[in-house]
Design brief:
Elements: H1 4-14, H2 18-32, H3 34-41, H4 46-53, H5 63-67, H6 70-77, H7 89-99, H8 106-115, H9 119-126, H10 131-140, H11 157-172, H12 176-179, H13 194-204, H14 206-232
Helix pairs in contact: 1-2, 2-3, 4-6, 6-8, 8-9, 8-13, 9-14, 10-14, 11-14, 13-14
Length: 249
């Protein structure tokens, strides 16, 4: 039988009262225990679970983030792309809040995301603002201290083409990305953010990490091709002032 709080939660979220929905679930944990809350989360639609988890990050915790299972979290977090957040800030905050709050289980949460349809895209979106550093880590096993946070939109066609070539060379060397172990320890990469996520993926789930790198590589190539086409258009065909074309990121 469905727990009454499930329908209550769904109705509150539909009405826009996300805080009220989260409060109702927290009350269950207080009254019936964490195990009861985990069972109830299985009955909450992933989109509604996502709506609540989007409100929290590492600086604002929730008992939901602390008890949600890897499978429950994966089903919800892959829906984040439907919000069309170009910065993916909420996605990054959610993953950090759940994965790194459960440090010993970080690999299990990341594996659950990687094994679900849309998981690779979710990781690529998560790393979007740090893609240059992640690619550097993929090919060297180290993190650079000199690379600023930057999106693909800020790179030139030549730069993107060179990076695509570097990744292709690494991939053509066989299993150079998935087999090469990181040259830094987890403690050195322990930022509770993208570095630690990349480290855990590469160290514990190298196959998933390599697929994410390939996806980032493909996005760079598509974006470079779009930039080249845009530069070839005559002025009359350019976008009207104020119009912004959606990128491939």
């Amino acid at each position: 039988m469905t727990h009454p709080v499930v329908q209550q939660t769904i109705k509150l979220i539909l009405a826009g009262d996300v805080a009220g929905a989260e409060h109702a679930l927290v009350a269950i944990a207080d009254e019936e225990g964490d195990a009861a809350l985990v069972a109830i989360l299985d009955e909450i639609p992933p989109k509604d679970l996502l709506a609540m988890m989007r409100e929290f990050d590492s600086s604002r915790e929730s008992v939901i983030n602390m008890v949600v299972s890897p499978a429950q979290f994966a089903r919800a977090v892959i829906l984040e792309q439907k919000y069309r957040d170009r910065t993916h800030e909420a996605l990054r905050g959610m993953i950090n809040a759940v994965v790194h709050a459960n440090g010993d289980m970080a690999g299990e949460y990341l594996e659950a995301i990687g094994e679900i349809d849309g998981g690779y895209d979710t990781f690529a979106n998560y790393f979007a603002e740090r893609f240059e550093e992640v690619l550097y880590f993929a090919t060297t096993g180290e993190f650079s201290e000199t690379m600023p946070e930057s999106a693909m939109e800020n790179k030139s066609i030549t730069w993107l083409a060179e990076k695509v070539e570097e990744i292709d060379e690494a991939l053509n060397l066989g299993d150079s990305i998935s087999d090469t172990q990181p040259r830094v320890t987890r403690a050195e990469a322990s930022d509770g953010d993208w570095m630690e996520t990349a480290w855990v993926l590469r160290h514990e789930h190298p196959d998933i990490f390599e697929q994410v790198i390939i996806l980032l590589r493909d996005r760079m190539q598509r974006f470079a091709e779009q930039m080249a086409i845009a530069q070839q258009k005559p002025p009359a065909e350019s976008s009207e002032p104020g119009e912004v074309e959606e990128s491939a990121i």
